[in-house]
């Protein structure tokens, strides 16, 4: 990182918690680096990859864990920065928030941490484990590999209400989504690109209640939904008897990490309002159309993940010994 970049980081730190988003083509974001553990724990990325892949491939259903880890990286970074606050146990911590109800993959992070502590104790942060595992998840789902920077430290604070207030929800339109991402230093285009994570995603019925049965307080279904698509979602999510184990695939083409999500939006088959609005809004529709080119999507997604992975990075925190608890003694 050049002096100029470091200076910008420090300046921004005065206004935000930790190190905010500074985009540089040649250097890391705010002290983060590629191959960060190459001397301190050379097998770190390989160990995380092996643990993640073992979990993803145990059966076809286990690929859902891959998608879960990708979402976890977003829910970590978007709430007070990428500091593994989402992993902390305890009353009122982020993982108890309603918006994190369906988050999965905690055990995979625990397992990777356990293996890393056995070979390089106190070296690899939980926040970095999430970031590497999310990348490995994308690759497991047929996405293109990208370099992930390391160097994040783990935070000591995790508050459920902060997850509820900082994360976007599925009922938002482009204005709200753009404003939400701007607060994290991410552009509208990056928001559209990162939403492509929904190409291998599944939603659940509770998040669809309003759109299917009481759109904007009308007591009706969102009128912009094609009838057959609305009928199919209502069949999966009958009003009276929501089943939490029902998965609603957010890409109607394939379960893989590809352009199917954007093609679903072009077919007006975006599951949540936040998805469909990206195509329905004339400001974001051109980019949705462009992202149906798979090579472009994969390249843009990797770049955007690197940007997301640098939100509010804390270089002064700790390396947790157990990802679910803050350290009781300095480590
Ligand atoms: C643009 C704003 C976003 C909104 C409003 C949003 C909203 C949602 C909603 C409502 C769900 C379904 C939750 C459920 O019912 O279980 C979901 C799932 C998911 N989201 Fe997002 N999301 C956004 C951005 C992102 C980003 C940036 C990523 C990652 C880079 C991401 C990754 C995922 C994944 C992978 C799932 C599926 C998780 C699974 O299958 O277990 N989302 N999102």
UniProtKB/TrEMBL annotation:
Its cofactor is Ca(2+); heme b. The active site is at residue 75. The record marks 71 as: Transition state stabilizer. PANTHER family: PEROXIDASE 55, PTHR31517. Residues 1-27 form the signal peptide. Removal of H(2)O(2), oxidation of toxic reductants, biosynthesis and degradation of lignin, suberization, auxin catabolism, response to environmental stresses such as wounding, pathogen attack and oxidative stress. The lineage of its organism: Eukaryota, Viridiplantae, Streptophyta, Embryophyta, Marchantiophyta. SUPFAM superfamilies: Heme-dependent peroxidases. This is Peroxidase. It is found in: Secreted. Residues 31-327 form the Plant heme peroxidase family profile domain. Belongs to the peroxidase family. Classical plant (class III) peroxidase subfamily. It catalyses: 2 a phenolic donor + H2O2 = 2 a phenolic radical donor + 2 H2O. Disulfide bonds join 41-120, 77-82, 126-323, 205-237. One of its GO terms (cellular component) is extracellular region. Its main location: secreted. Pfam families: peroxidase. Keywords: Calcium, Disulfide bond, Heme, Hydrogen peroxide, Iron, Metal-binding, Oxidoreductase, Peroxidase, Secreted, Signal. It comes from the Eukaryota. Substrate binds at residue 168. Its EC number is 1.11.1.7. It is an enzyme of class 1 (oxidoreductase). PROSITE patterns: PEROXIDASE_2, PEROXIDASE_4, PROKAR_LIPOPROTEIN. GO terms for molecular function: heme binding; lactoperoxidase activity; metal ion binding. Ca(2+) 1 binds at residues 76, 79, 81, 83, 85, 94.
């Amino acid at each position: 990182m050049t002096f100029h970049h470091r200076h910008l980081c420090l300046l921004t730190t005065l206004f935000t918690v930790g190190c905010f988003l500074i985009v540089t083509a040649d250097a890391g974001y705010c002290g983060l680096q590629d191959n960060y553990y190459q001397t301190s724990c050379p097998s770190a990325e390989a160990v995380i990859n092996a643990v993640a892949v073992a979990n993803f491939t145990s059966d076809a259903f286990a690929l859902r864990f891959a998608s879960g880890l990708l979402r976890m990286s977003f829910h970590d970074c978007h709430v007070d920065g990428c500091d593994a606050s989402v992993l902390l146990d305890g009353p009122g911590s982020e993982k108890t928030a309603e918006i994190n109800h369906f988050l999965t993959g905690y055990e995979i992070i625990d397992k990777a941490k356990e293996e890393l502590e056995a070979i390089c104790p106190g070296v690899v942060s939980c926040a970095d484990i999430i970031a590497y595992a999310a990348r490995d998840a994308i690759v497991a789902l047929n996405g293109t590999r990208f370099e992930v920077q390391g160097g994040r430290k783990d935070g000591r604070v995790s508050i459920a209400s902060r997850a509820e207030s900082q994360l976007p929800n599925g009922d938002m339109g482009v204005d709200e989504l753009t404003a939400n991402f701007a607060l994290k230093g991410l552009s509208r285009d990056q928001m559209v690109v990162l939403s492509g994570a929904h190409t291998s995603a599944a939603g659940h019925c509770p998040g669809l209640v309003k759109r299917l049965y009481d759109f904007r307080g009308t007591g009706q279904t969102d009128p912009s939904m094609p009838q057959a698509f609305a009928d199919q979602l209502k069949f999966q999510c009958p009003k009276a008897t929501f089943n939490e184990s029902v998965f609603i695939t957010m890409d109607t083409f394939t379960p893989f990490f590809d352009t199917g999500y954007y093609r679903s939006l072009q077919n007006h088959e975006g599951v949540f309002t936040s998805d469909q609005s990206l195509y329905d809004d004339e400001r974001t529709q051109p980019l949705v159309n462009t992202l149906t080119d798979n090579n472009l999507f994969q390249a843009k997604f990797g770049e955007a993940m690197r940007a997301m992975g640098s939100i509010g990075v804390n270089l002064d925190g700790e390396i947790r010994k157990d990802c679910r608890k803050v350290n009781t003694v300095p480590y």
